[in-house]
Structure formats: C-alpha cells, structure tokens
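Feature request, filed as a ticket because there's no other form

It would be nice if the structure record came with a short human-readable summary line next to the tokens. Right now we just get the raw output. Example of a typical job, pasted below so the devs can see what we mean:
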Amino acid sequence: MITQQQQNNMQTASTNNMMASPNMARTVNHGAHEILDVHEVISGTLGTIDQYLMFEQQIKDPELKDIVVRQRQFITDQYNVLVECFKTGQDPSHPTSSYMMKQSNDVVYGMKSSQPTKPKQSAAEIDDKCLSSLMLGCMKSSAQTMTMAAGEATNPIVRRVLQDSIPNYLEMAYEIFLYQNKKEFYQVPQLKEEDTQQLLNSFATSGGSQGIQGTTQGMPNMQ
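Raw output as currently delivered:
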C-alpha cells in the first residue's frame, strides 16, 4: 500500500521531470530516429574513407588514383562537418562544399563483346576495373543512406548538411561511372531508334503549368 508521503514524493518527481523536459529539448535537439540513421551514415562514411585508402594502394592507373585521392580528401572533410554538427546540434565550423569532377560529360554508347565476369580467385586478380566498381558502389550506397536519413532528420542543421551532401556523392559516383565508361569497364547499351522514339513520345506535358508556377511564388532563390 502506497503511503501519502510516497504519493507526494512521486508527484514531486513527476513535476521535476516535466520542468526538465524543455531544457533537455533545447540541449539534446536530436530525435531517436535521427540519431540511429545519422550514426549509420557516419559509420558508413568512415568505412568508405578506410576502403578508399586501401584502394589507393592497389590502383595502377594514375587517372583513377587521382580520382580516389581527391574523393577521399573531399569525403573526409564532409565527414568532419557531419560529425561536428551531429555532436553539437549547431552550425559546423564551415559549411559543406561542392565537389568538382574532372571528367567530361561525354558518354560512349554501344556494346562490345567481352569475356563474362566471374568472381576473382585471388587478390592478385583485383584490377582497376574491380576497384573502380567498388568505388562506385560506395558512392551510390552513401547517397542512398544519406537520402533516407535526411528525409526524417529532426535537427535542421544536420538535415541541411545531409541534404547538401547528397549531390556531392552523386557527382562522385557519376565521375567514377564516366571513368569506367571511357575505359570500357561500364558499357552503355541503347534501344533501337524506333523504340527509343516511341518511349520518348509516350508522354505529353500537362496544361496546368500556370498553377504550378503560382505555387512556387515566394520561394527563396536557391542559386
């Protein structure tokens, strides 16, 4: 049986907890879902940096080595920015920057006959084609994980850092794709011309563009 004194103590503790909640909300401004998602993003980014360091030691092509060095330096800086704002919940010491690739946007289309791919039997068989494919996989996975985390981040600063980082990872992925395509590691097939035209012309624009323009009035200029 609970005594009157015990009831008073429980009420006092409950009141103290309610009074502490607003202070806690201001100090720990992260939701549980965000904490877990961003923890996964940071862990994955750390793994990518470590893998890139290993790739750098094995890559033979100077062009690909230049890509892996530049990307690892950029990813490390983005890692520091995310860790800083995640720990503090405040603006990082410097904002996210934009990755600038060196590859041209020219894509080589068409397929050439090649030997079927199969699992490697020894580490000596790991070549630049394999390493660049692993790099591409890292960038695509990172962009996907960051997108999932950014969509439900509660801290606005962490959300903005994640959101601004996604285009950079897509740019790095595209740079690796262009390198692979140029080296014929990643071939791009095309449909027949008539099939391509039929699919391109299978949609028409809507007549409601005026209404769309009306909804965008007052939005900030993102340039």
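Something like this underneath would help us a lot:
The chain has a mean pLDDT of 85.
Helices lie at 4-27, 32-58, 62-88, 128-150, 156-182, 193-200, 209-215.
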